[in-house]
Structure formats: C-alpha cells, structure tokens
Design brief:
Elements lengths: L24 E2 L1 H30 L8 H26 L1 E2 L16 E5 L5 E7 L10 E3 L3 H6 L7 E6 L2 E11 L4
Parallel strand pairs: 1-2, 4-5
Antiparallel strand pairs: 3-4, 3-7, 6-7
Helix pairs in contact: 1-2
Length: 179
C-alpha cells in the first residue's frame, strides 16, 4: 500500500499515511496528547471493558451474549490503537517550535498567515502528521500547503497546486511560540 509504513503492521485505518522518508516530527503538545490517549485507553477504558467481558462470560452462552461479543470487539480495537500509539510515540522526534532560532522563515511549528488571490487571510500552524487538525488550523508537515510554505519568508509569493488548479498565496506573517 503506497504511503504505508512497512514497519507498522498495526497501522490504524484512521491515521494519516506517512510520506516516505518524512521524519516523525511532533510538537511537545502533540506528543503529550498521544501519551494521554494511550494512558486513558490502558488505565481507564481497557480495564473497564475487561470487567464487562468477564461479567458477560460468566452469564453462560457467549455466542448470543451482546455484552460479551461487543466487549471482545472493543478490546481488540483498544489493543490495536494502543499498539499504534505506542509505535508512533516510540518513533516520534519531538521538535519544540519555541526553540526555533531562524524565526524569519517557515519551518516546522511555525504559525503562518497568508493571503489568497481572493484577498482572504488565512492562518495555519505546521505540525506533525499525527497531530494535524484542519478545523483547528493545524496542517500536516506532509500537506501540500505546508510543503509549499516551508523556508518561505514574509512577502514571498508561493504557487501551490490544488485540486482546483494552481493558486498563488503571499506570506504575510510568521510566528513561533515564545522561547
């Protein structure tokens, strides 16, 4: 499967595909969110589901026991997600955008404001693949937008290819978290 990490045999179907050769950059906040999710799954949800499955198994016929069947299915989902998160956390390369020295150019962790050809102002933050959330204005380092903006400076015009054709944008501001 193109874009799939060959070492990741437990790839999560909901996870974005990693671009070949792209480092597993992640912000400290993104890593903390992944660790919190893993802890919540293993400390809270999994023990609760194990308890339900044990109770349901004691009720007799398991073939028609909805609590048992659903519980076993949910345990497989939890274990799969936990393996996925564990692998991603182990391979993550934490990069703190606040430590960026060259703040006049766009690099990982930058918050970039740009103008579209229609004079619409948009702001995005470039984050790791596993932490991108477009609704929150966070775009993946592997996204076409982030790749086009990388190493640009304020005033640079950037031509990007989009599904609707080429688009020209102008970088108007670059910010990093305070050091």
């Amino acid at each position: 499967m193109p874009g799939r990490d060959p070492d990741d045999d437990d790839a999560d179907d909901d996870a974005p595909a990693a671009a070949p050769g792209l480092a597993r950059y992640i912000t400290p906040e993104g890593l903390a969110r992944m660790q919190a999710e893993l802890n919540q799954l293993m400390r809270d949800e999994r023990p609760r589901i194990v308890e339900i499955v044990s109770w349901a198994a004691g009720n007799g016929d398991r073939s028609e026991n909805g609590d048992y069947l659903y519980g076993k299915k949910r345990l497989r989902e939890i274990d799969r997600r936990a393996r996925f998160l564990g692998k991603r956390i182990d391979r993550a390369q934490v990069v703190d955008p606040a430590a960026q020295i060259r703040r006049d150019q766009v690099f990982f962790g930058a918050t970039v404001t740009y103008l579209t050809e229609e004079d619409e102002e948009r702001t995005v933050t470039i984050v790791g693949i596993d932490e991108a959330e477009l609704a929150a204005g966070q775009v993946s380092l592997a996204s076409p937008l982030a790749r086009a903006l990388m190493q640009r400076r304020v005033g640079d015009e950037v031509r990007m290819d989009t599904p609707r054709g080429p688009v020209l944008v102008e970088v108007t501001a670059i910010r990093y978290p305070p050091a």
